[in-house]
Amino acid sequence: MSTEAHTHVHSIDSDAETALDAEPTDQTVDVPTEAGTVSVSIPADASDEEAAALVCAVQAHLADRRAAAARESTPETPDRWSLAGRYGCRTRCDLPRTVARGEEWKMAGRARGRR
Q: What residues contact 94, with CB distance under 8 A and at least 6 apart?
């Protein structure tokens, strides 16, 4: 009889442990971005404020990545007005349209050599 009672208690304990070990399932939220829709997994135990913060963080991260990609894809050029003295420009029209960074002095020498 004690064996049955022990077995019965053990089965209750194992059921309780199983219930405690079972994790609630996460939610998936579709977040609209400029590039399209992104699915974000929200933990089931997250509050509304935590879920909103998580979605905002994901949107900010994606916006930062897009901005970084845009910066890398555009050629790096120096400020046009900082070059005006090097070129001896008198008007805005005298400034060259594009000069790659590192080529400023080479272009200044060419521009002064033409005068």
A: 84, 87, 88
